[in-house]
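Class prep. Write one:
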Amino acid sequence: MKNLKINKNPKVDEKFQTYPKEIRKKMEHLRKLVLETANEIESINEIEETLKWGEPSYLAKKGSTIRMDWKTKKPDQYAMYFKCTSKLVVTFKELYGDLFKYENNRAILFDLKEKVPKAELKTCIGLALEYHLLKNKPLLGQ
């Protein structure tokens, strides 16, 4: 594996510290999957880790922003968000059906008690990280 450069905003760590301990562990797992996936994609050498709308967010040069968060109004779930005008979530639904729970065309939802399907989620993350290279391909270009 290559050495992925992470342009990290220190406020992201501060945000992670605001989550309850059980939630922080789940959110850190999502973060690890994003960074691990980015590191495995040959075309990605650098990723930005920042806050957008107060949520941990990740963006590669030719990709679409991935955000993640947990909200107190829905304490039993957390989510990974994608640009709602992209074809990403539509593609995820086509690929994985009801393996994931979705919020319209903008998010994959996770229950706190469920095990995250790692390989499938990494595929979704990879599609988002390379979105502008792939958006005209079958499924994504529909």
